[in-house]
């Protein structure tokens, strides 16, 4: 297999976003409550449930595309689904980064960058 590193990155992104989506679905009230407090001093203070729903959809789309991309890459060496999974992962992470910066949570923003770097590498390798 010539695409081992790309496959590992797609699995990494799949785990990241599917687990995060699972957490949002099954602990919705707790997430909304925590995020309302987190964004209390921002323009998003009244939009938390809607913003969380948008992020949830993007995370699930990213994770599902990365899973499909992993399978496609492993079975046929195809890169289409993986590329779009990595691209959606980057878009999702940029939205999360924007929220953290808006909330002035610079440590949280820094943590997102740790996930963003491998996502960008995956986009590059799968393009």
TrEMBL record:
The chain crosses the membrane at residues 51-74, 81-102, 108-126. It is a multi-pass membrane protein. InterPro entries: DoxX (IPR032808). Keywords: Membrane, Transmembrane, Transmembrane helix. It comes from Flavobacterium polysaccharolyticum. It is found in: Membrane. This is DoxX family protein. Pfam families: DoxX.
């Amino acid at each position: 297999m010539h695409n081992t590193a790309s496959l590992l990155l797609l699995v990494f992104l799949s785990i990241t976003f599917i687990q995060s989506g699972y957490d949002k679905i099954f602990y919705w009230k707790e997430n909304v409550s925590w995020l309302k407090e987190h964004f209390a001093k921002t323009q998003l203070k009244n939009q938390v449930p809607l913003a969380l729903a948008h992020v949830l959809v993007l995370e699930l789309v990213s994770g599902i595309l990365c899973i499909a991309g992993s399978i496609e890459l492993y079975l046929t060496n195809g890169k289409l689904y993986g590329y779009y999974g990595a691209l959606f992962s980057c878009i999702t992470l940029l939205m999360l980064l924007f929220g953290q910066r808006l909330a002035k949570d610079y440590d949280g923003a820094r943590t997102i960058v740790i996930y963003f770097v491998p996502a960008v590498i995956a986009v590059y390798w799968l393009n």
